[in-house]
Amino acid sequence: MSAQPQQLNLSAGFRNIPFATRSILIAVVTLFLFHKVSELTLPQSSTSEDGGITKPDLAAAYRSSYARFFTVSVESIWWPWTYVTAGLFERNVVELVVNGGAFLVFGKYLEHAWSSREFVKFAVLVNLSTYLLVATALFIEYALTLNIKFLYTTANGLSGLLFGFLVAFKQMVPEHTVSVFKIVSVRVKYIPSLAIGAYIILFLVGLINAQLFIILSGTLTSWVYIRFFKQQDGIRGDRSETFSFASFFPEILHPFIAPVSNATFQLFVALRLLPPLAVPVLPTTSAAMSSTIYGDLNKSQNLLGSDTADAERRRALALRALDKRLAQNTSSPAVVPPQNASNSPEMAVQSTT
What Cα–Cα distance (Å) separates residue 283 from each residue in 85, 145, 194, 291? Predict the structure, then answer.
């Protein structure tokens, strides 16, 4: 009797997963199972005496594997669909469970916060851009070293998209604190930088190669999209200082990173690859000043999608500016309107700057 309620609970829990997140997870599991079944039909690759694949057989081993239809490499130009499937393909059970579980947790939160349409748009854009950049990086690595192993190095996995989700959380809830086993607590805005630093160390000691390109590409493409293009509550992008490119680096490096990133931004604007900064219209009356400030307060509340400490700081500064402006107007001579206001022209009170 108890087995039936448990089955119903599992079914209900699966249905409670948002549609887009559930669909992507089904695609990930399907590709994994198809690859494992296909491996059973393949002959064993030629190996050298030490058990590794010999260099002459490297290309043959690559082309004889069905994995080439799911992963990205320099030769993926002949199989363009792999730029999409690579980000949904995990090779082993451990990666499937760990990355799939993380995708489930992140995906449920973001899809509820954004909508299924925006979530799918973000996932497709980040996934496709990530593996296009990874294939380019592998080709450059091969061209610089002429090492054939880079020509047939494959890249795949959800890690690029997961790092894109970390960037999204950095923008949405930067001041939220995450505790790791109740031992270490870290704010969300620092997590992408710490994770990238760990991957760079692993790359420098030779433990990973393409994985570094995957997470860097996922981080960069997601930041560009959220920073300059993503629409939320009528606002395009997030140009706040807390989400600048320099914010991914330690504060001691900001004076060196900011000029370079600003110059790069101006270059991309000149090439029309990025939209320019919007120039705000300054108010000319006290009433307009008050309306503009309170309008900005409402926008700042919606900018990050949550009531963060940064939004609180901006609201406090705006209120302080409003109080100062109102105090200046109170101390200045009052302008007495004419008795017959309907027949008199409109009077504009010029505010002090």
Answer: 51, 59, 42, 9
Cβ proximity of 130 and 138 under 8 Å: no
pTM attached to this predicted model: 0.73
pLDDT tens, position by position, 114-164: 999 999 999 999 999 999 999 999 999 999 999 888 888 899 999 999 999
> In terms of Cα–Cα distance, which of 114, 319, 110, 108 is closest to 233?
114
Backbone angles phi, psi at 46, to 5 degrees: -65, 140
pLDDT digits (tens, 9 = 90+) for 64-111: 566 778 899 988 888 899 999 999 999 899 999 999 999 999 999 999
Per the DSSP assignment, residues forming a β-bridge with 178 are 186
Cα angle at 222 between 220 and 164, to 5 degrees? 100
Please provide the DSSP assignment of 94-125 as one string.
HHHHHHHHHHHHHHHHHHHHH-HHHHHHHHHH
C-alpha dist (Å) from residue 291 to 172, 318, 346: 26, 11, 19
